[in-house]
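User: I would dearly like some help making sense of a protein record. This is the protein in question:
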Amino acid sequence: MRTYSFSFHKVLSALILAGACLLAGTAVSAADIPSALPSAELPSLPDYGASDAYSRSYGTLPESYDSRKLGLITPVRNQNPWGTCWAFGALGAGEASLIKKGLADPSVDLSELHLSYFFFHAPTDPLGNTKNDSVSLPATAANYLESGGNNLFTMFELASWAGAASETIAPYETASTVPSLNSSLAYEDTAHLQNARFVSTADLNSVKKLIMEYGAVSSAFYYDSRYLSNSSSYYYPKVASYNNHIVTLVGWDDNYAAYHFNEGSRPSAPGAWIAKNSHGTSFGDGGYFYISYEDKTLNNRKDALSYAFDLEKADNYDHNYQYDGSFGASTLNLDNGECLANIFTVSGNPSGREQLKAISFALYTPDVYYSIQVYKNPDPGEPESGTAMFSSKQYGSTTYSGYYTIPLKTQPVFQEGDTFSVVLTFRGKSQSYVDTFVDYTSNTAGIQFQSSATVGQSFYKSSGTWKDMTRIGNKSAVARIKAFTKDTAAAATSGTGSGSSGTVNISTPRIRTYRCPGYNSVYLSWTAVSGATGYKIYRSTSPNGTYTRLLNTRRTSFTDTKRRTGTNYYYRIRAYKTSGSTTIHSGYSNTVRVRVIPATPSIKKIRLANNKKNLLITWNAVNGATGYSIYRSTSKNGTYRRIKIITSGRTLSYLTNLPKKGSAYYYKVQAYRTVNNKRVCGYSSSPKGYYRQK
């Protein structure tokens, strides 16, 4: 049996503290260069540029390219006085993607303050699925504007829809006072992250292709202003121990001559990136500078990565179903052919319906084949047990590492209260495993990521068995699988299932009898459904909790045994019909509650005893009873008072006083069972009386 564990790729590239980005001409010594948060080692990414599989429709890459000349780049911004380069770099790349798609013009301005604030202060998402997830400031950070940031963490924040917002909602100039924002603004977005791709910046061809495809990339590197030349050219001749800045790369020039760089620390060959900085137009060449291809940190640090952020207008979907509400960089390693799944409950359009338009996932491993299937109303804990929504799985493949949103070819419609599972199967193209990003409670360089997953949300499948991801390791986790819907008036989809030629309906059964026949069992019966192959029975210990499927049966009754006395159990049932490889399900029946209690005794006889001086009451034994309580009243329908507690389940009689002449006593007997030093009582017997003649 394979052992699963989480890997923490703490991609802390480009974490910069306030004031860390020193401008050209500042007199500094090595001691003045600020330190950054530490970065854990990442596995090396492949050289995509060496593979034809990643070629786009550009033919040979040009020797120079500048997105500014195509009108794709927004004006240079100014992050001062705070360490928010990560927000400026990412949103600069995202703005370029919007312009390149024709969804915005160069006047578009996304809010870096909004992105920075809600990274650490994101409230529960609008659907309530990320409750108690959080990201906490490092103890060393004075405030959220000085904490630094990271492109990978930003990718997950943008995927949650906590950004990107318009600059008008949270203007950056107000950041001089470290403002707090109203939580109602968290999901007031103007754009949503659709995709993200990241590669090693040392992989020149791949970075160039991403710039040409998306307009710009956000890139981490090490910056020391002493190595910025008077001609705004930068080359760092050593391998830094960390990255401390993020910029937006907007183009390149393969022939950019080495003489532009500082004498004494020049690269050996021409070629440089065109970088947009975030320190205003007074920096460098109108806010831009050139970074040598040979920069030692870019070429030798595994976390010197470049990210493309592909944004869409925020009206592309209405609802984002997600459980991954914190933004850390943990991964789960899956063998080829293994699966991930999330089960969601439809709730975004009260009393209405929603159409599932797309799903998303995030992978560290590049070059991955995937398949998608969606199931309606799956059994709790069994994502593949519901009605399949696609006649066959949807297949595809990835290229670069990153975040992928996949529009669905078949788009089922669900109604409020339905559940649906998104099931993904992965297989590496050239390796035997896939590293998929997950949300997992972790601490990365002082930033605390809290994932508060609950049982029944997220699963992985190994050796043919689904396992809840809250049971991996000693902390909860969820897959970074999201589902995107739009409100619709269309009819709900019943489902086709694999191999089905059409839509089939099946009636919903109703539980008609439910009772407790003994101290450890529950009896159920339900209405038969015409054409049903069988019925599935589910149980929970709370009305809105997770229901576990107990069994499949062809009968219309069932006795649930080995239950705990004194516990409330909730039951529901649904019918299913199987034809070939197709299984369809009815809706769930009414839910019933049964409290497990001892059975009800019956009084056998009340007779004179002890030379007619007393009455002797006898009753039948109740299985599992610890003892019995005796109740008495002077009228059959009057108030009964307890007169005796018998502490032995073996005692089945009680000797008591006679009533006065011309009057009667009525008795009831009640069985009880002691659980955790408390008596759990059953129902009282039917009354039985004795009348004494005058």
Q: What stands out?
A: The radius of gyration is 34 Å. The domain at 511-595 is CATH 2.60.40.10 (Immunoglobulin-like). The CA atoms of residues 506 and 586 lie 5 Å apart. The longest strand covers residues 568-579.
